[in-house]
């Protein structure tokens, strides 16, 4: 029985290598979450990297990260409306390519991450 695909945290430590067969879902690239979380004037904000539109101000980073992932779910549901992407058929191809593979992102393993959304979507 094959092990269940998982999310792996990308690291900058010396000697760290992305595991063979794993797929990076970091930015830049179409697998990355276009919604970024950053600190601005003492609060955490969620920003759409495609147009710099702000989607909320939060006192704590985990709440901002959770909102960024919720926005990513909506983004996937509306994949065919994004000018960077071809169409909804492309989404099906991407899900098929991700199916059964470990995904790599910068988010901590205990953090909310769009990579978990990709894992769910690709393996359901």
In words, what does this structure look like?
The protein has 124 residues and is of the alpha/beta class. It has one domain (7-123). It contains three helices and six strands. The strands form two sheets. It has a three-stranded parallel β-sheet, with helices on one face. It has a three-stranded antiparallel β-sheet with strand order 3-4-5, with helices on one face. Helix 2 (88-98) packs across helix 3. It is globular, with a radius of gyration of 15 Å. The model has no long low-confidence stretch (mean pLDDT 89).
- Count of DSSP strands: 6
Helix content: 25-40%
- State the distance separating the first and last CA atoms: 17 Å
Query: For the report, how would you describe the main beta sheet?
Result: 3 strands, parallel
Number of helices: 3
The secondary structure category is alpha/beta
Strand content: 15-25%
Shape type: globular
Please tell me the overall pLDDT. 89
Strand order across the largest sheet:
1-6-2
Gyration radius, in Å = 15 Å
Order of helices and strands: EEEEEHHEH
Tally of separate domains = 1
Q: Ranges with pLDDT <50 over ≥5 residues?
A: none
Summarize this structure briefly.
The chain has helices spanning 61-77, 88-98, 114-123, and strands at residues 7-9, 23-24, 35-40, 43-48, 53-58, 103-105. It has 124 residues and is an alpha/beta fold. Helix 2 crosses helix 3.
